[in-house]
Design a protein that fits this description.
- The chain is of the alpha/beta class.
- The protein folds into three domains: 138 residues, FAD/NAD(P)-binding domain; 111 residues, FAD/NAD(P)-binding domain, CATH 3.50.50.60; 109 residues, FAD/NAD-linked reductase, C-terminal dimerisation domain (Enolase-like, domain 1, 2-Layer Sandwich), CATH 3.30.390.30.
- It is built from twelve helices and 20 strands.
- It is globular and about 75 Å long.
- GO terms for molecular function: dihydrolipoyl dehydrogenase (NADH) activity; flavin adenine dinucleotide binding; NAD(P)H dehydrogenase (quinone) activity; oxidoreductase activity, acting on the CH-OH group of donors, NAD or NADP as acceptor.
Amino acid sequence: MTSLTCDVAVIGAGTAGLAAERNARKHGARTLLIDPEFAGTTCATVGCMPSKLLIAAARAAHQARESDLFGIRTGPVEVDGPAVMARLRRERDRFVSATRKDFDALPEGTRIRARARFDGLAGRLSGGQARLILDDERVVTARAVVIATGSAPMVPGPFAALGDLALTNETLFDLPDLPRSLAVIGGGAIGLELAQALARLGVSVTLFDSGTRLGGVRCDRIHATLKKAMAEEMTLRLGVTPEPSKDGRAERIAWEDGEATFDRVLVAAGRPPNVAGLGLETTGLRLDDHGMPEVDPRTMQCGDAPIFMAGDANGARPVLHEASAEGAIAGRNAVAWPAVVPSRRKTPFTITFTDPPLVSIGEDPDDSAAIGSADYGNQGRARVEGRNRGLARLYAAAPDGRLIGADLFCPGADHLGHLLVWAMEAGQTATDLLTRPTYHPTLEEGLRGALRQICRAVPLELPGDSDPGQPPGL
């Protein structure tokens, strides 16, 4: 039986795993990066990039159909499904190729193509080492281990029984053509993005969710605006339990008060962490009912063991920039164990790339927070571009007016959200932002009314007459 030894073993070669290995090696550790495929990151292969390629095609089709608003006549818009999917895969493969260059840059002997599982952790509190068994029967002994195994689509049993009629975000992008009709199961970020994109590409889409809240939106007013916008482009079946059954080469979905047949179904019911088969039960860690250990979000350490869990594998903040940050924290602390160092985490920040984009920033505000709202239904720049819909809600702490969060569903929210989260990271107040220059006419200008509402509610000093703010009615 071959034995391998290292200071830090990293299980999983995605965004978090690459960041962990890189930072551990930077801090002097001998590392091993273990992955069964080294296929590339989830973002490049089946996540961020292919989904945005589909969304970009959908935006082009939507804008062509809406051009009559500006006096531009295009005639009927034809969507060439095979061409859409061919470009998507061609560009996706370019992104994947770029991520794989990170594997080629690893020092010789660092990359281990195998599956790993724990086989006990001897002397956890006295400097003992972790023991990993690989599926090729090699044994890895490491001073510390970083788990960065990512997540995978959850396909409930009734949908799994449908075979290839059931799609996930890991199989959708390999379709040779667009389906004529599609049931989307799940109204989270993935379900919303793909449902709207496919609807704009001419697919008849029905979205099902057992809950009544789309996208995990916390603000009732934002959710009402989002729901209204989505209902204009697809059929929504919320608060129902869809039951699938195979009907030849189609899929029949029944729910409490109806049924319909679809060409395919996209299951977007969540992506739980990939922890099955890791042997966590042998480590002495306390596990919850889902087999998950408790992870300190400031150190990424599991309990007091030399085991760290980063990225989608821990299920805390399953977005790419957080996976990269968590991987770096885990890699550094794996080297330093047992002298781990807590890190200050960045402000929570998520974007769902619907149109308009849906953005959430910061923690849930409490009852003491001052709130400012900006309605983009008649905002100047949005109206010029025919995108005048949506709402922004900003939250500030009393009594200082420091910005602590925001919910946005409005044009340019993906860019506005960055401005707001940067301001929050800098500890800025509503007054601070109002004193900054704002060009006219822009979408950023639309936030000024919300900032002024916060200043009046706290109260804070409003900028003087030398700052005219947004022109009336715009």
